[in-house]
Design a protein that fits this description.
Layout: E1 4-10, E2 14-22, E3 25-32, H1 34-51, H2 64-71, H3 73-96, E4 100-110, E5 117-125, E6 138-140, H4 148-161, E7 164-168, E8 177-186, E9 189-190, E10 196-202, H5 206-209, H6 212-217, E11 225-231, E12 243-257, H7 263-269, H8 275-308, H9 316-336, H10 341-348, H11 351-379, H12 385-399, H13 403-412, H14 416-435, E13 437-439, H15 453-460, H16 463-468
Parallel strand pairs: 6-13
Antiparallel strand pairs: 1-2, 2-3, 3-5, 4-5, 7-12, 8-9, 8-10, 8-12, 11-12
Length: 487
């Protein structure tokens, strides 16, 4: 109940009382004995003496009374409070054994030399979660089988890599390449960065690219002159966001001519001798990838099902940390696509809808973390050095980076605690998969899918590599180290 005292702690120097504000927030009333305050003021005087030039005294040698007359008692007390209050707050949190989330809001009542310091700290806390019952939990195994459509798609990807362009006499369509001359103007002035002669342009699906040029080119024929207006993107400097008038002359349309899949083609462009050999290896790698992806999806489904069984208030600070991480990741993805964040949002759809989805995802992730932590505590899941090394290797492999580099970054960024939390959650899910009833799924014996390094190297540059995609996200329900509570 809001305003209800929870408990009080007393030590020789710091006295605390905790009152609950709501389900995720408390106010800690803190009183610090005058002796500790005096120590803090003396330390502040020593620091200021090194910084302030006092005539007649060497740096750091001016007495406190002289320093007070120079800078004022209030300034000295403010310097002392700025350094001492965070330490007093940490002592209070440790004494109360609070699992805090985010930074506190401090309200200082008194902090003066010779007196007890009295202040309060209002802060969000990580709520206690009752672990859900898993005895009757049934999870359908995600799809894991390789279809002929999967194989055909990857073989087509391979053919497209070696496709040739040939001139066509029909109208341009999605996927074609067109030779165009573009003239862009704003207020009658030519925009050089948006203009060009005889450019070869790949026509994309307008519904996906949200490009007016793509809309105009679909159905256009050589000799057509297209005129339209479009808002300039953010990378046009002073002209960003302004309307530009475009004139596009369509000169030629080219279509891809895909090579036939033959033994000769495979032998010439891969390290396999026959199409049958390449097809067999492609199927093996697709199967390995789909089973691994299915297991990842299964882990996510388990986490989601467990979270659905729990009602818990979420600390807003943790939600905002997770949301900020996702927004930053979206910005990075936009940069990788060579567009601004606003353009990337336009490509994805309505920006308000995107941010609403990110917020929902952030809340689901934080809730999953709280539930997994509660289950790990109940199951007494411990993390050792080998577990941490395996998690670092997993994250490095997912990001395509050296494990030593990842370990060093985590140490530098003080993310070891978050790494331990992530590892405990992952280990916890592994145990849960042994306890819940999984309906369906591939056979337990995957010996035929064990990695063949040589074969993998041969197909890495081929279509099988594209089957894995470029996954920049952590597994659903298991985000990597970013949003965490403190304490």
């Amino acid at each position: 109940m809001a305003g209800q005292p929870l408990r009080a702690q007393e030590s020789t120097a710091v006295q605390t009382t905790v009152e609950r504000v709501d389900d995720t927030k408390v106010t800690v009333q803190i009183t610090v004995e005058s002796e500790r305050v005096e120590e803090a003021v003396e330390a502040a005087a020593s620091r200021l003496a090194e910084q302030v030039n006092v005539p007649g005294f060497r740096p750091g040698k001016a007495p406190r009374r002289v320093l007070e007359s120079r800078v004022g008692k209030d300034a000295l007390a403010q310097e002392a409070a700025q350094h001492a209050l965070p330490e007093f707050y940490r002592e209070a949190v440790q004494a109360e054994q609070l699992h805090v989330a985010g930074q506190p809001e401090l309200d200082v009542e008194t902090f003066e030399p010779g007196q007890d310091a009295v202040f309060s700290a209002t802060v969000e806390i990580v709520p206690e979660v009752e672990p859900p019952d898993i005895d009757d939990l049934q999870i359908p195994h995600p799809d894991w089988e390789v279809t002929e459509e999967d194989v055909t798609a990857q073989l087509d990807n391979l053919r497209q890599r070696f496709a040739e362009l040939e001139t066509v006499s029909r109208a341009a369509d999605v996927g074609d390449y067109v030779k165009i001359t573009v003239t862009a103007e704003h207020d009658g002035q030519r925009i050089e960065d948006a203009s060009g002669e005889d450019m070869l342009y790949h026509v994309e699906d307008p519904q996906q690219s949200n490009s007016e040029l793509d809309r105009q080119l679909v159905g256009a024929e050589p000799g057509n002159i297209l005129k339209f207006s479009e808002t300039l993107a953010d990378d046009f400097g002073e002209l960003a966001g302004k309307e530009a008038d475009f004139t596009v002359i369509v000169k030629e349309a080219k279509a891809q001519r895909l090579p036939e899949l033959t033994d000769e083609f495979v032998e010439e462009n891969t390290e396999f001798d026959t199409l049958a050999e390449f097809d067999a290896e492609l199927r093996r790698q697709l199967a390995a990838h789909k089973r691994e992806q299915a297991r990842t999806d299964l882990r996510s489904k388990v986490v989601e099902a467990l979270a659905d069984r729990v009602e818990v208030a979420l600390p807003e600070s943790l939600v905002q940390q997770e949301l900020q991480f996702r927004v930053q990741r979206l910005s990075s993805e936009a940069e990788q696509h060579g567009v601004s964040p606003d353009e990337y949002l336009q490509m994805m759809g309505d920006s308000e809808d995107v941010f609403s989805q990110l917020d929902q995802q952030a809340r689901a992730t934080v809730k999953s973390q709280l539930v997994l932590d509660a289950i790990a505590k109940q199951m007494e899941v411990e993390v050792d050095r080998n577990d941490l090394e395996s998690e670092v290797y997993r994250q490095a492999q997912r990001m395509g980076r050296d494990p030593q580099e990842i370990a060093q970054l985590m140490t530098q960024d003080d993310r070891i605690g978050a790494l331990i939390s992530d590892t405990r959650r992952r280990k916890n899910i592994d145990r849960l998969l042994e306890s819940v009833q999984v309906l369906g799924g591939p056979p337990a014996d995957d010996a035929d899918l064990e990695e063949d390094p040589e074969a993998g190297a041969r197909t890495a540059a081929m279509a099988a590599a594209e089957a894995t995609g470029d996954d920049q996200t952590g597994e659903a329900g298991e985000p990597d180290t970013h949003a965490r509570g403190e304490g």
